[in-house]
Amino acid sequence: MAEAKGEGQQGMKLVADVIHTRTQTRKLSAIEVVTDQGEFHGLYHISKQNHHTPEGRFAYGLACELVNGVDPIPNQSFEYFTSNKPLGIPVNSLRYKNHLFYNL
């Protein structure tokens, strides 16, 4: 919710996919991934009130699935995303609304 607010359910699933991929490649829990220093900056600006909206309830469901090891998008596995314009677009990438999802 914090990183993909306004990106809809697909945008939230893509961010959740990044979290899931990192749990697999870095052998971390979902909580460790999102609280890793310098990552997921939006996490610190989220309001508890957001959980009472349809978007917030969807995000909460995704978070519960991530904690239980569910892959939100089984046929994709992006490890990074940015809302900034990168210097070059990586080969394995997907642009969705305001974010670029990619692997190095």
Question: In a nutshell, what does this entry contain?
Answer:
Helices cover 37% and strands 11% of the residues. The protein contains three helices and three strands; from the N terminus they run αααβββ. It is globular, with a radius of gyration of 13 Å.
Topology:
Layout: H1 8-26, H2 30-34, H3 54-67, E1 80-82, E2 93-96, E3 99-102
Antiparallel strand pairs: 1-3, 2-3
Helix pairs in contact: 1-3
What characteristics describe this protein?
104 residues; alpha+beta; 3-stranded antiparallel beta sheet; 3 strands; globular
Please provide a written account of the structure.
By secondary structure, the protein is α+β, with helices and mostly antiparallel strands. It has one domain. The chain is 37% helix and 11% strand. The chain has helices spanning 8-26, 30-34, 54-67, and strands spanning 80-82, 93-96, 99-102. It has a 3-stranded antiparallel β-sheet, with helices on one face. Helix 1 packs parallel to helix 3 (54-67). The longest helix has 19 residues, at 8-26. It is globular and about 40 Å long.
